[in-house]
Amino acid sequence: MRRGITFYLMLLLAVFGVLSSTLAGYASYLKSRELLVRAAENELTGANQALGRKLSVALGEIARDARMIARHPLAATICSSTRPVAAAEGAMADIVTATLSVHPEYFQIRVIEADRHGLERVRIDRIESEKNALQRVQEADLQEKGHFPYVFRTLKLGRDEVYLSRILINHERGAHAALGQPTIQVATPVIDGGENAVGVVVINVDLNSLFNLLKTDLPAQTSLYLANRWGDFLLHPDPGRAFVFDVGGRELVQDEFPATATLVNGDGEKVIVRGSDRGRGHGAGRVVGSFQRVPLDRSDGESFLLLGLSKPTAVVTAEADTLAWTTLYIVIGASVLALVTAIGVASTVTHPLRQMARAVRRFSRRREITQLPTGRYDEIGVLARNFHDMQLQIQSQMKELHARHEELEHLARHDPLTGLPNRMMFFERLEQSLARSRRSGLPLALLYVDLDRFKEVNDTCGHSAGDAVLKATSLRLLRNVREIDTVARLGGDEFVILIDSVMELDHVPQIAEKLLTTVVEPIEFEGHRLTIEASIGISVFPTHGQSANDLLVRADRAMYRAKSAGRNNYSLSEVEPE
Known about the structure:
The chain has helices at residues 5-14, 22-71, 73-80, 86-102, 149-152, 207-215, 253-256, 261-264, 313-316, 320-330, 332-366, 379-413, 423-440, 454-461, 463-479, 507-519, 548-564; strands at 106-113, 120-126, 134-136, 163-164, 168-169, 182-191, 197-206, 223-227, 233-235, 270-277, 285-295, 304-312, 444-452, 486-491, 494-499, 523-525, 528-530, 533-541, 569-572. It is flat and about 100 Å long. Strands 1, 2, 3, 4, 5, 6 and 7 form a seven-stranded antiparallel sheet that branches. The protein is an alpha+beta fold.
């Protein structure tokens, strides 16, 4: 007689009576766990509030130092003078150096005048190779910073008002020790006797030192989190998950702790979380935590930060283990019978079920087919065989679906004739390049190419000849630009070329001339020598526009000027008055 899963389930239910004595002890155990969790929540909430005040105080002290320097009469004297004032600048440099000496968490302090494009007048840097060494930047190396928000936005503030930048990885050239480090700029205006903003004082803060200050005096085995107003992690137990947005990724607190979404959306001030910490290698598992909003004044796009503390649930409920052991001793006699029964059940039922569960997980995650207990003749064997057949069908369908998805994805983003990126893909790359240019300061160029005499080819030799001309022109354009540049077809006989990270703007007209030369070369098609020309319009970021659409419009206009000037020519966009 074959014994199926029903028999074993009946056997398992029969031994449940032995376990009834554990219910009272288990209920007490659960209650003690709940009390311990609530106590931990109260502890973390109190510690989090104290930590929030500590962060606010730390930022307030930085702002106080900035105000102290800005209020000094020498600051207004330096920023108001159009010529170097060696004595005043030297005295101010001594004040700034003294401030940096007592604040190792400061990377850099600068006094910047409002005129002359925000020229630095006094700048003291912390040397990267020697953390405690300070260096005054000489006059020849001082830079113009008027285009940075911490300058032009601070100049709009009143006396003693403070500007806080976004917390991010510093990519500003000339930042020295701060380059590539998490930082925040704290700035305040320098006001002269006439209540005019003549300059700014900027303190560049080392956030790693500030974070270490926040971590001191935390309870044992407590993890600290800090996120910006959008939920991006700035501080995480796993350092690899902090500042991921700086490299184009997103690691969000509301994804890891869904309850914090109310804080990100502005619907609350603090929340308690109980859930899963998906951190890697830092106490991943069930946690208890507390998160709150820390408001910021005069911030650059961040009106608040999210501050959070968490503890592993296992640590919080460790004291409940004593009660668990006591309960275990009470029912150990009955558990012997349950153990013997469980061994029999595990060998005949649970082992193949676990095997199938592992197969399901592997298939759902990796689409990997593993061995199943298909040789059994009971209900589990029937289930295993059916699941195996289903895996084969799903795998075949997924392969077909993936192939079709890749084909559709390519068609949606590329021109079907030339294989070049289409308008949608080109604008995506242009937006990415604009973001890089704004960070790096390197310009980019846009070349709008329109083929001349293309209609004559279509009218005299047919559309197949026109298609051949478009394909040949596409290959020629690709061969004459760099791999990092983008050649796209907008439609018809119109192409556009994105020249990324231009080191020398003088090279752009040279590229246009090279393209004109290669386009006019004859194209052999079915015994015909087809000849076309091109008109090229050029626009440059940021000279001719700040947005993708502006740059394309300016390049288009310049192309029409080149066409009107006689064709087979290029024209650079003109700077239009504001």
